[in-house]
Design brief:
The complex is a heterodimer of chains A (about 260) and B (about 270). Chain A contains eight helices and ten strands. With about 260 residues, chain A is of the alpha/beta class. Chain B folds into two domains: about 40 residues; about 220 residues, MetI-like (MetI-like fold, Orthogonal Bundle). Classes of the chains: A alpha/beta (about 260), B mainly alpha (about 270).
Chain lengths: ~260, ~270
């Protein structure tokens, strides 16, 4: 099977004050299959968000290639829609105007896009808030709206940058369930960055562990548990143990480098 | 039945709040009026005429149409000069805000121009354009231009990159960004500049009319001064303040309905 998304030798350097440039990402290779949910996890500062931005086309000075459906992509586009950490929505647009934004850009008639966006809003349970402004929504609701907007742009792959980082524990769990349900239903391919090991295991088919800076792929862990997963099952806990050991190793390395 | 009463009382309370707000705002005016009246009793009329003399002057000026004529003249001037300023300052501000090289090139000039009040330009403007509408328009233009320009620049430069990223990853092309992201995101700042610009333009206009015009509220004050009609001077001052208040109020209403999406404005 041809992979949906391929990353080839992605290297990203930042200019720094002393002469040696800072290597943020080093030779990242990764391929993601259709309808896969892949989670990237790693110590903070390892360049996870940068990697997601590179895929989204929001970073332009990097080495390597991002290949979507066999074609090299550089510029940003709706085929790689991104949901940001803060569930960014355009604050001057109502929820429904945000959701239909991608279709508005395509010039789709108002009635058609309204109908479709209402369907997506229903899917995420926000139909009563269609005409509210983003500031009127709670954190979880904003995430739902941002997800609906992303799904509406019908991406080949949906990129999520720590989407639930700012939510409280309960809302976070609800949103994880919601996301999984949406992804299974729409059969979308997804790449998600997170800090939470539990979230990673609960959601993903594969977990990519990135090393401390410079970020490289340390390990790819296949998660072959059936959904819905039980967070307290022995297999779940076993995987969690393996991954947290790997991450702790990296965190220690980061600390040593900093001292 | 009970919830109907509750609903009704909610409406009444809401109205009450507005009335209360209005009444509170009225208090200083009443105090001012009483103070004015008390002081005017002890002073010669040419120094400070009593409120009723000024009211007489008002009714006379309204009946003869003099007040309306000067007010209309002022309004026409401000509309022309102010709209012209918006027409130039907003696009220029967007350009400077988006384009670093234009910023580097024009910013020192803009910052300098900001400190040159319109009134300082009056002599040279009159020299070039004579006394009349043209001169007034240029002076009003200058008064409104800088605040609108500077607010537009800072509004555009302050657009959060995350909004641009949102648009780009949802399919926006470069050409969409200006209308779909930059302008709506900068609009609150542009509005601040427009309001500030309006009050500057209004002041500049009055100054221009006092020094370089034969019509308008500023001219009315100067005319009354030459004739030692202090009550008409005060009439002019009150009219200027009152119309300014009306302009600002209508501006705020427009702003509020256009910027509903902003947290602070909706909750206020």
């Amino acid at each position: 099977m041809k992979p949906k998304l391929e990353l080839r030798d992605i290297t990203k350097m930042f200019a720094s004050d002393n002469e040696r440039p800072l290597i943020a990402l080093n030779d990242i290779n990764l391929s993601i299959n259709e309808s896969d949910v892949v989670v990237i996890i790693g110590p903070s500062g390892c360049g996870k968000t940068t990697l997601l931005k590179i895929i989204a086309g929001l970073e332009n000075s990097y080495k390597g290639e991002v290949i979507l459906e066999g074609k090299s992509v550089k510029a940003p586009g709706p085929d790689r829609c991104m949901v940001s950490q803060m569930a960014t929505l355009l604050p001057w647009r109502t929820v429904i105007q945000n959701v239909e934004f991608s279709k508005e850009l395509l010039g789709i008639p108002k009635a058609d896009r309204k109908k479709e966006s209402l369907e997506y809003l229903k899917l995420v349970g926000l139909e009563q808030f269609a005409f509210s402004y983003p500031f009127e929504l709670s954190g979880g609701m904003r995430q739902r709206a941002a997800l609906a907007a992303a799904l509406m742009s019908d991406p080949e792959i949906i990129l999520l940058d720590e989407p639930f980082g700012a939510l409280d524990a309960q809302t976070r769990k609800d949103m994880q369930e919601e996301l999984l349900r949406l992804l299974q239903r729409t059969k979308k391919t997804a790449l998600l960055v997170t800090h939470s090991i539990e979230e990673a295991i609960w959601l993903s088919d594969r977990i990519v562990i990135i090393t401390a800076r410079p970020g490289r792929v340390k390990e790819v862990v296949q998660v072959n548990l059936p959904h819905p997963r039980n967070r307290t099952s022995s297999e779940f806990i076993e995987i969690r143990k393996v991954i947290s050991e790997m991450i702790e190793e990296e965190v220690k390395l980061t600390k040593r480098n900093h001292v | 039945m009970e919830h109907v009463t509750i609903g009704l009382s909610a409406i009444i309370t809401k109205d009450n709040k507005l009335i209360k707000k209005f009444l509170y705002g009225l208090i200083p005016f009443i105090l001012l009026l009483v103070g004015w009246w008390a002081i005017s009793l002890r002073l010669e009329s040419y120094l400070l005429p009593s409120p009723d003399t000024v009211i007489d002057a008002f009714s006379k000026a309204i009946c003869t149409g003099e007040l309306l004529r000067h007010t209309v003249s002022s309004m026409v001037k401000i509309a022309g000069g102010y709209l012209l300023a918006l027409l130039f300052a907003i696009p220029l501000g967007i350009m400077i805000g988006l384009w670093q090289r234009a910023h580097d090139m024009l910013n020192p000039l803009v910052q300098m121009a900001r400190f040159v009040p319109s009134i300082a330009l009056i002599p040279i403007i009159v020299l070039w354009f004579g006394i009349g509408y043209q001169a007034a328009t240029v002076i009003i233009f200058w008064g409104a231009f800088s605040p609108v320009l500077i607010s537009t620049i800072s509004g555009v430069e302050g657009v959060e990159i995350e909004y641009v990223d949102f648009a780009l990853t949802h399919g926006a092309q470069r050409r969409h960004l200006l209308t779909k992201v930059i302008i709506p995101a900068a609009l609150p700042d542009i509005f601040v500049g427009m309001r500030l610009g309006l009050s500057y333009a209004w002041r500049a206009m009055i100054a221009a009319e006092m020094l370089a015009s034969k019509f308008g509220l500023g001219y009315l004050i100067m005319d009354a001064r030459w004739l030692m009609q202090t009550e008409r001077v005060i009439m002019g001052i009150i009219t200027i303040g009152f119309i300014g208040l009306l302009l600002d109020f209508s501006f705020r209403s427009a702003e509020e309905s256009m910027l509903k999406w902003r947290k602070g404005m909706v909750l206020k």
